[in-house]
Amino acid sequence: MTVLAVFRSRAQTLAFLTALRGMGAAAQAVNTPKEAGVGCGISARFEDAFLPRARRALSSGRYSSFSGFMKQAGRGFEYF
Fold first, then answer.
1. Which part of the chain is the Putative Se/S carrier protein-like domain (predicted)?
2. CATH no., domain 2-79
3. Is the dihedral of CA 20, 22, 28, 32 positive or negative?
4. Considering the entire predicted model, what is its pTM?
């Protein structure tokens, strides 16, 4: 399953991607879907197998703009 980490800050999204990749997770920057309801245009996309690493990356950094995780639901995404 595809997971998105949604942020309200582009800079924090990119910092999170760097941290997550540093933990060995495959992750990409992607356009934030409209369902997220945030202004930032990019999110971090990764597979759910890397969710524990993503949570670790979040807890080890300062990501005040983190909005939440979204998962693919049909043709769109939803927060979980």
1. 4-59
2. 3.30.70
3. positive
4. 0.93
